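Tip: read the tokens left to right.
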């Protein structure tokens, strides 16, 4: 082996040693990163925006993986945890779901039942009624034709239920507004944007609400101040314009 061949062998050995050293350095760096990052764990991100106080469901989230050391302690790791929960604030698409973003949906008490009605988005308390709110439910009725062609009775506004508990607020939905199904009522029906509101009511109050939704000209809600559960006296539950004259 001449001197040129010896130099070639030496350079080849040096190259191999450098390659092995670089490979060892990369492995050491990878081990160091893995040691710092740690194992990955599951978490859940929002697929879409969720308005405040909207009920949560598993279909609204997608599963992701992230290093355990970077995952917040409050991160939700099991979608069973969202059952029966509502969003406490508006949630943005791509946000990591955490336990402080949701709360329990208001529950029914013994003797209560759920009933949902559509409330006109314009005449309701838009954006201010949430699960857990307390409201007074008003209904307006047109005067009825008196026997013998003596004209009509006065139009009335009635408080049909006071201090009703809201347990769910649905999505904005088009609906046809109108009274009963008689021919003259059908001609006055019009499509409006409304929100389905679910209440927890006694049987008697649920019947009053069902009647008002079917036969009243309009049904409106009045938000009650927190802690103000004052019962409305009977004399103040019915209003006619002639009563102010």
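Filled-in amino acids:
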């Amino acid at each position: 082996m001449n001197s040129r061949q010896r130099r070639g062998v030496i350079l080849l050995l040096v190259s191999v040693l450098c390659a092995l050293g670089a490979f060892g350095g990369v492995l050491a760096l990878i081990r160091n990163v893995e040691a710092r990052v740690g194992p990955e764990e599951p978490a859940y991100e929002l697929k879409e925006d969720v308005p405040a106080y909207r009920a949560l469901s598993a279909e609204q989230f997608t599963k992701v993986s992230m290093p355990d050391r970077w995952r917040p302690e409050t991160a939700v790791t099991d979608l069973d945890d969202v059952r029966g929960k509502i969003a406490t604030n508006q949630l943005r698409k791509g946000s990591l779901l955490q336990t402080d973003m949701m709360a329990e949906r208001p529950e029914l008490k013994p003797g209560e039942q759920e009933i949902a009605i559509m409330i006109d988005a314009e005449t309701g308390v838009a954006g201010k009624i949430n699960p857990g709110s307390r409201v007074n439910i008003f209904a307006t009725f047109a005067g009825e034709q008196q026997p013998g062609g003596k004209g009509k009775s006065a139009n009335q506004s009635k408080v049909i239920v006071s201090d009703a508990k809201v347990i769910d607020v649905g999505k904005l939905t088009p609906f046809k507004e109108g009274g009963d199904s008689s021919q003259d009522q059908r001609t006055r029906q019009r499509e409006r944007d409304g929100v389905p509101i679910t209440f927890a009511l006694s049987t008697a109050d649920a019947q009053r609400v069902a009647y008002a939704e079917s036969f009243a000209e309009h049904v409106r809600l009045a938000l009650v101040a927190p802690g103000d559960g004052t019962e409305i006296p009977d004399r103040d539950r019915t209003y006619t314009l002639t009563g102010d004259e």
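The chain has two domains: 40-104, 113-244. The two ends are 125 Å apart (CA to CA).
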